[in-house]
Structure formats: C-alpha cells, structure tokens
Amino acid sequence: MKLNTLCLLTLALSSLEPTSAYPGLAQALTNLPTLPKRQTVTLLADLQTLPDTALSPAGLTIKNILLHNRAATSPQDLTTVYTPPGPLDSAACRASTCCVWKHVADTMAAAFLNPSTSHCNSLARQAVRLGFHDAGTWSQSGGSGGGGGADGSIILAPAELERTENRGFVDGIAPQMRAWYDSWHDAYGVGMADLVQMGATVASAACPLGPRVRAFVGRNDSAVAAPEGRLPPPESRDAEALVALFADKTIGVRELVALVGAHTASRQRFVDEVLSGLPQDSTPGVWDAVFYNETASEDPPLGVFRLPSDQALSRYPATQESWKVFADSVGGQTVWNDDYAAAYVRLSVLGVEHINDLTECTGVLPLHSA
Ligand code: HEM
Ligand SMILES: *[C@@H]1O[C@H](CO)[C@@H](O)[C@H](O)[C@H]1NC(C)=O
Ligand SMILES: *[C@@H]1O[C@H](CO)[C@@H](O)[C@H](O)[C@H]1NC(C)=O
What we know:
single chain, Peroxidase, domain 1, binds protoporphyrin IX containing FE, binds 2-acetamido-2-deoxy-beta-D-glucopyranose, disulfide bond
C-alpha cells in the first residue's frame, strides 16, 4: 500500500516537474495533497485567440499562469534580478523598458517598509488594496469594452476614487500615486495603470514572507470612471454572492480565497469606526498565513478584528477547503504564496485588451524576504 502510493506520487511528480529529483521530494510530498486545482482556466482578451506561435515572451508566460500550467511557468519568480544598464537619464536606460521601473520599484519599496522593523506599513497595505480596487472593476458579463479593469482610473477619475468602497485611499496611497506619476509620467512614459499594479506587486514582495508575483508593464490608462457595483461591498457577509461576483471576473473559489489572504496585512478603518486600526490578524506587518488560522479560529487572539466577509468565506462549503489548505501551519504559506501569485497575475491583467503587448519586469521587484 505504502509502496504503491509512493510510486504513484513519484509518477505524478515526475510528470509535473521533470527536473525534480530526490532533494525536492520531501517538500513536494508535503505539498502534494494541495496541488492547484485546475478550476479557473479561462483565458483573457487576445490570449483567447492568438496561436502560441504569435505569443510574445510575456504573452506566453501570462497564458501559462492563467492556465495553471505550473510545470512550464511559475507565477512567482524568486531569483531574477534586473540590473539597470545605466543611470535613469542615459540612452541605455531609456532603451530598456524595465529600467525606469527599477527606479520606481526601489522608491516604492523604501516607502512601503517601516525602516526600524522592516515590516510593511500602511502605504504598502493600501497599495495592495488599490491594485485590487482598480483591476477588480472589470467583469466578464460587462463584455469587451464594458469598462473597468487595470487601467489606472481609480486615480485618474476622481468620481471613482470618491466612492465609498475606496474610502481611505484619498489621504494615503492616492496622493502618493499621483506624486509618483508626476515624477515619471511625462519624462519616462510611466502610466498610472502600470504604476498601480506595480505598487501592489512591490508591496507584497516587500512585506516579510510575501510572494514575489510576476510583474508586467505596458497597460493603457483610462480617465473614465469604472462601472459601479463591481467591487465587494465592505460589509458583505454573503459568501455565495462573493463567489459569484468573483466568478464574473474569471476568478475561481480557490483564487478568491488566496486573494483575500491579502488581509494578512490589513487594518480595517471603516467597517467598525470605533475599532478603527484593528488588524485582521495578529501580525499585520507580516505577509503570513496566520491570517487563515485566526479567521477560522473559535478562539481568536485579542485585538484581531475579523472581517465578516472573511469569516463567511472560511465557513462556506465551496471555499472552506481552500481556506484550510492555506491555514495549514506546515505547508500553507508556500502553497498560498504561489496561489496568490497566480491569482494576482490574473487580477492584474483584467480589462487589458492586448495582454500580448505587455513586457515582464519582475526583476525590478525587491527580493522575497524571510
Ligand atoms: C471578498 C472580497 C473582499 C472584501 C469583502 C474585502 C473587504 C475589505 C474591507 C472591508 C477592508 C477594510 C477597509 C477599511 O475599513 O479600511 C479591506 C481591506 C483590505 N483589503 Fe480587502 N476585501 C476583499 C478582497 C480583497 C482582495 C482580493 C485584496 C487584494 C488582493 C484585498 C486587499 C485588502 C487590503 C490589503 C486591505 C487593507 C487596507 C489597509 O489596511 O489600508 N481585499 N478589504
Ligand atoms: C490554528 O493553529 C493552532 C495551533 O497550530 C491549531 O491548534 C488550530 O487547530 C488552528 N486552527 C485552525 C482553524 O486552523
Ligand atoms: C493600447 O491601446 C493601443 C491603441 O488602441 C493598442 O494598439 C494597444 O495594443 C493597447 N495596449 C494594450 C496593452 O492593450
């Protein structure tokens, strides 16, 4: 029995990762029961029609990530480092798409960390939420040209920024994004849509233990406010409605559960204004899986404020299983980081018309910190 199982496991492993030999086996075995489910494999925009032979490097990478083809493409990249070919104003730097982004990402990373603790700060958590609130306004049923998505409109359209669900940005990350845009837009062509998504990926990578989500640039900006009603209401506690809302963005249950793990770094201000500032887990400066345990716990630590939506998702049959996988105190963090990364890449290209035109700049991100 034991032998049979092991053989099967080895077979399954070797077909997934042809290069993995015994050294990785122990870890792989720990992760095995939690290998990603192929549930959301919906391609997006131009990737739905372009043949593989017409794909750019970024197009192929994103396609593989959207298809959960992890044997070919990992949704995180923990090693690539981009070295600028010259100073910001040099011809060599201007000729390399990622060069200005190296300067942007370094500036962001410094702004996102508390220098004395190296924990991520309020600007970092707002940057992650901002990335979601810009891109998450896209919906499949809205159709192509239906508006919304990762287009920078959350900052460029005042009417969108002022919405209730965006409360809090206006005195924090929004003026910061504006200032960064003013520094790099005219002189270096940095767009708001890219800036907002880069902010979210720099922030998660900068937070201790956070994923290094693969980062792409080249999106188009829009100053037209996204359609209303596409983001989850802050007070929502209806898991079924949340699952449906995200399904309309091509985000499946497991991806939804991975994404709300971003609340590991969160401190609510407006759900309960009397308890403003209370975190959603006991370690808001660290991107740890403790959030999943504490949200599902019958006996949460004092001072942790659980969002009704998170509690609902931790109990709802369709999402509970993934919740448990990420809550696992041994392998949860590793599985979650990859799942979050895959789901975030999907989120970060929602509404982008020509995904194949993007360029990968993951190398500019801070390296994963333990
Ligand atoms: C089920 C869907 C979701 C609901 C109902 C929800 C709701 C909320 C609420 C109510 C807050 C507290 C806001 C406040 O009072 O200041 C919050 C904060 C936050 N959310 Fe979500 N959220 C959801 C999904 C997501 C996703 C997908 C992400 C990112 C991938 C995300 C990232 C964040 C972050 C980082 C914060 C902390 C902001 C801060 O501390 O400044 N959320 N969310
Ligand atoms: C949380 O972690 C503790 C300690 O490891 C464990 O006893 C408990 O069962 C976990 N709870 C959940 C809901 O995962
Ligand atoms: C941006 O818009 C231009 C003009 O419509 C288009 O050619 C280009 O492919 C778009 N880029 C992306 C990333 O969608």
